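Example for tutorial group B:
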């Protein structure tokens, strides 16, 4: 017996609401389609990212280009090369040295290639043995507190964490360091040892270049012996042929549209007009100069307090970080080069790498004008190295000028002496050389190829982001000095900064490209930890930020530990920088003690090191009894070394330790980040 109510319901369902309507079907199809594309796109991305997790490639390359460009082995094999020279470079010197070695390889029938480890899959080193008479050379700089350079970081970590079998790999290492720093050539030494541990064969002893002395001389001496070892190892002989083949060829770009011409950008065309976060070495932020004021009260020297406006940039910094300033050369020097070489500085050109396999197509952003290259991209104020002397010989029409260049380019004792006296001691740059050897008229495009890149200048940040989140402060001494040839050399960055004076709000403010470089120079995690700060002169800079940060914590009601500052300068009434600020911090209790040394305010010179020796009890109380932190900022060559010696002596005497025990105690402080240095030479 049917239920009439049920029949009614069934009838209603069938005739008015189908179980699966046309709309349902359409939605189902859309969902399936979206799911299909999402799944397979995700799978494709994940599989491509898993192919080569180690290699880091430029963001502008496609995934296909990344895979092919990362294999330096394929490039060596396809072009018949057996020599690859890797570089770990922060300032460009290691890269320059690598290029010189690769170029000289032709004299020994070893066709060479320069490679950036950041752009290579370094795991391919295991395949070097497949290439007959192959050789890998590493020009490696040590940077910061014994760290690898940015572009060598991944390779360094790969060596640390990997266990590749490198048997059959022949190698040599040249390190670039500075003896005034504690971790002298630490990275190069480690890489040399680690390669050998993994089974590689060392063809020549490691070379250690000292930038505090004469790194060019160190490199040239090592390089000569390197080739002797190479000849012995492989049973080959030098061909005797000089290799003066250009690495780049000149391209006329007079027809290029103006909007496609670089005008000073570091990497991306029009990057200063269209700023994009994040900002770094390849993409600096064009910051306005908010404040530029003189800190010295009198005298013929100048020290500037400068504030960079970062409001709206999304840039963040920590107390103790560094800020990089991207400078430009003076128009006076640039114009002088154009005048000496009778060149049209406004001609648009490009330099294109003659090695089609090289990942570096241009030595600097191209196309651009010669004026732009000489202003923004090339270092025209430093002392040229010997290989530039060698390249200039062919352009000298006067035999006397030719002979002088040949002598300085040679590795003989007489040549090294002449180069040291005429170039280094007399402090000549390329402009001075062209002035003093008037018959030398190099092609301007070749000169642009030879000159090193203009480097950023780094400054300790002298502010705290807690107090100044929208600006970065620096404290910089204006660099001007007279050379033995009675020329006035001017610091590239500080003389530029001195000209950038903010105007009233109605006019455009002066700007300069900057970016932040992270540092390990940090306040203790706990604000209660006592600290001692030693910073004569502009060494005060990071401590100004430290004091601001502790002052901010105190205002918030947090407990802060003792803060003791040692500051020194020449005269109280002349160069006692930030005097009023420091006295105010003493008055409000942020600074526990302020020890001052004015070296020339009395007959006998008085330095911060003298004060440290007098206050041994205070030093030991903080670093020994209270496990406080000690910070040093300033000159690495003498002041920082003297401070270290005094600290060891205090630990010995007050801690009742032997010299060996005291050294170990201080070493442990450094390892625990309780003894930190931000120094320069």
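The residue assignment follows.
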């Amino acid at each position: 017996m049917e239920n009439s109510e049920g029949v009614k319901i069934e009838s209603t369902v069938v005739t008015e609401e189908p179980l699966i309507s046309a709309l349902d079907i359409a939605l189902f199809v859309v969902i399936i389609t979206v799911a299909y594309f999402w799944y397979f796109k995700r799978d494709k991305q994940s599989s491509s990212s898993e192919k080569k997790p180690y290699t880091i490639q430029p963001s502008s390359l496609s995934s296909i280009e990344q895979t092919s460009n990362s294999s330096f082995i394929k490039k060596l094999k396809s072009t018949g090369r057996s020599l690859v020279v890797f570089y770990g470079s922060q300032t460009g010197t290691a890269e320059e040295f690598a290029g010189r070695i690769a170029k000289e390889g032709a004299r020994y029938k070893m066709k060479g290639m320069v490679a950036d480890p950041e752009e290579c899959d370094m795991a391919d080193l295991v395949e070097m043995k497949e290439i007959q008479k192959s050789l890998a050379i590493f020009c490696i700089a040590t940077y910061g507190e014994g760290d690898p350079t940015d572009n060598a970081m991944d390779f360094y970590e790969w060596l640390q964490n990997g266990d590749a079998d490198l048997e059959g790999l022949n190698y040599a290492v040249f390190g670039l360091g500075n003896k005034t720093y504690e971790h002298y050539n630490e990275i190069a030494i480690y890489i040399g040892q680690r390669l050998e541990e993994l089974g590689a064969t060392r063809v020549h002893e490691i070379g250690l270049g000292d930038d505090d002395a004469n790194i060019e001389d160190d490199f040239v001496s090592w390089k000569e012996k390197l080739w002797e070892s190479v000849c012995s190892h492989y049973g080959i002989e030098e061909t005797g042929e000089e290799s003066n083949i250009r690495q780049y060829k000149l391209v006329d770009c007079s027809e290029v549209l103006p909007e496609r011409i670089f005008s000073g950008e570091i990497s991306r065309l029009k990057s200063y007009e269209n700023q994009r976060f994040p900002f770094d070495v390849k993409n600096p932020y064009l910051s306005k100069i908010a404040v530029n004021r003189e800190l010295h009260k009198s005298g013929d020297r100048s020290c500037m307090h400068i504030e960079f406006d970062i409001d709206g940039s999304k840039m963040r910094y920590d107390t103790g970080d560094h800020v990089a300033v991207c400078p430009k050369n003076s128009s006076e020097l640039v114009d002088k080069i154009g005048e000496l070489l009778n060149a049209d500085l406004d001609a648009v050109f490009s330099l294109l790498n003659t090695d089609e396999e090289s990942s570096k197509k241009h030595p600097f952003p191209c196309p651009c004008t010669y004026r732009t290259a000489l202003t923004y991209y090339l270092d025209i104020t430093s002392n040229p190295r010997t290989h530039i002397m060698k390249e200039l010989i062919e352009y000298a029409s006067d035999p006397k000028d030719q002979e002088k260049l040949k002598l300085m380019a040679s590795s003989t004792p007489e040549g090294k002496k002449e180069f040291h006296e005429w170039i280094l001691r007399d402090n000549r740059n390329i402009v001075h050389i062209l002035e003093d050897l008037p018959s030398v008229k190099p092609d301007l495009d070749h000169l642009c190829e030879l000159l090193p890149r203009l480097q950023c200048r780094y400054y300790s940040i002298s502010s705290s982001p807690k107090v100044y989140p929208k600006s970065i402060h620096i404290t910089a001494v204006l660099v001007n000095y007279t050379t033995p040839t009675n020329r006035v050399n001017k610091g590239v960055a500080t003389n530029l900064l001195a000209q950038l004076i903010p105007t009233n709000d109605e006019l455009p403010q002066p700007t300069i490209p900057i970016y932040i470089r992270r540092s390990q120079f940090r306040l203790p995690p706990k604000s209660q930890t006592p600290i001692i700060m030693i910073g004569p002169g502009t060494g005060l800079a990071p401590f100004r930020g430290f004091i601001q940060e502790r002052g901010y914590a105190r205002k918030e009601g947090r407990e802060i530990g003792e803060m003791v500052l040692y500051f020194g300068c020449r005269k109280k009434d002349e160069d006692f920088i930030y005097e009023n600020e420091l006295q105010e911090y003493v008055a409000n209790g942020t600074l526990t003690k302020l020890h001052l040394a004015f070296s020339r305010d009395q007959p006998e010179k008085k330095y911060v090191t003298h004060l440290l020796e007098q206050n041994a009890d205070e030093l030991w109380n903080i670093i020994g009894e209270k496990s406080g932190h000690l910070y040093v900022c300033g000159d690495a060559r003498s002041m920082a070394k003297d401070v270290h010696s005094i600290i060891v002596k205090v630990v010995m005497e007050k801690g009742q330790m032997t010299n060996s025990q005291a050294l170990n105690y201080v070493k442990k402080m450094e390892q625990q980040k309780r003894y930190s240095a931000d120094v320069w030479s």
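The chain has four domains: 72-234, 271-327+456-519, 329-452, 531-679. Compare this with the pattern of hydrophobic and polar residues in the output above.
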